[in-house]
Specification:
Structural class: alpha+beta
CATH topology: T-fold
Strand order of the largest sheet: 1-2-3-4-7-8-9-10
CATH architecture: Roll
CATH class: Alpha Beta
Oligomer: single chain
Amino acid sequence: MGAFIHAKVEIGETAATIAADGQYVEAAVDAIKSARKDLERMIRRDRFFMTTFEPYTPKEEDGPVISRMCDASARVGTGPMSTVAGTIAQVAMEAMQNRGCSHGWVDNGGDVAFILEKPATMEIFWEPGSESAVAMELEPTSRILGVCASSGTLGHSISFGNADAAVAMADSAILADALATALGNRAIDEDALQGVFDQFKGMVGFIGGFVKFRGSIAIHGRFPKIIEVGHNPEKMTVHSRMASPAYIGCCSSHEVRP
């Protein structure tokens, strides 16, 4: 076994931190490149795939990456690109697991796929300039899970709502990404928090959610315990082309700490 490393990679618009034993990182990078090729091919074939905010029906020849994006987004009523960051994180983590990785994560700009042999904390941050944040206490898991976020007030996420942070945990980062977008879209004001999870209660694969709007917070399902932590902006996964002071710390970005 090699050393556990944190490898930060940028491939096109993708900026990811791959955290795992060093021997598995190459598999994750190859999976990211392959998924991006599938996405780029799909967008060249049909630009509507990239721009629609509604569910999209794939063709068999579009391949498994596109199919998984369309399936997850259709379940929550969003467009397929609502899952793109989580999908890339998921396929990269699966590639590492297939090589034998049982502890690691892929953080694709705040959308995270992970498998853990020991507890870890994952930061949720929405206030640039703050020295503190909150974090989830994650328990060990023998399967890949996903935690993804959306925001209507900070960052580059497209949201029809106004949530400071909408975070979803699911049995894949693909579904978690779709759910985070859908929850964020529903959080238009403080009153909306009361029913923000109603549409998704009982959904297979949805583990739990967290939505913050100004001074109010709604939590649903088996969402991990929340604790207060010191914010560490240096460990956030941010694309170098977006790393301006206005961007750092936005979009409820996550940092996993073993």
